[in-house]
Each structure stands twice: as structure tokens, then as C-alpha cells.
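TL;DR need C-alpha cells for one chain.
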Amino acid sequence: MTDHQRTDPPPVADERATLSGYVQYQRDTLAMKCAGLSAGQLRERAVPPSPISLLGLVRHMADVERGWFRNVVNGESVPRYWPREDGTDGAFDVDTADPEEAFRVWREACARSRAVVEAAESLDVTGRRRGEDFSLRYILAHMIEEYARHNGHADFLRERIDGAVGE
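>> reply
TL;DR here they are.
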């Protein structure tokens, strides 16, 4: 795996561009960790009984993008992409999941998120979640943390699947 597949954050930029650049770098890292794997490999769970798989991470992050940017910042009410019958999160239920669909939904969610960030008047724009206000600045910082944590999982999953290691 090589770094050339990722877009580096700008070394000199305003706050919005810096935070957005780091979020995009983390998105690119997740895509890089999944590159070149078969559907079966993407579904592989490396640490049973944990349901975490690379495909599950992609699906989970699509829902995280949807939740924070569309529902919280934009005030939309977009339901989970992969809910279970009881309405809970089914992102990690990947036994029959279609990787092409998952990556398409995730990329579309990321594009919508970028559009929300670009359209926002400032990073001080807020949205509500569970009765609490969150600024766009907070959400971008949280997304960096969320992706970085899950990219750590992706590192271990990828190494277990085919031995590939890298940033």
C-alpha cells in the first residue's frame, strides 16, 4: 500500500480547509486499506466475535457521514442506510452485503458531506443531536477522530487478511 492514493491535507490553509483536508485524508486512508481486495476479503472478520470487517467499516462510515452532516448539520431526517428490522444499525451485517453498493453509498455520502461543509456559512454553524448543539467545527474534528480510530482497525484487518501493512 502506498501513500500516493491519498490527498495530503494542505500544510498552510484556513481552518475549514485544514479540517476538511484531514477528514478527506482519513477517507482516502480507508479507501486505500480496502483497495484490491475481493468481496470475501472485504467481508472477513479478523477478530471474532467482533463483527468488524473492512466492508462493515465502509458501511458504518457512510452512516456516520449521513448522520452528522445531513441529519445534524443540515437538519434532514435521512434514515440509516442499512437498518436491521428493529431499526438498529446493521452496517456490520455484511454476510450478503454488496461491496459495490457499499462503496457507492459511502462515496455519495462523502460527496454530500463535502457539499454541506462547503455551503456552510462558517464553522460556527450548529445542528442538534439528542438535544445537544454541535458546531460544524466540532463535527469535522470528530470525523477526523472517528475515521482515525476505525482506520486503526482497518490496519489490523488488512494485515490479517493479506499481510499488507502501511500508514
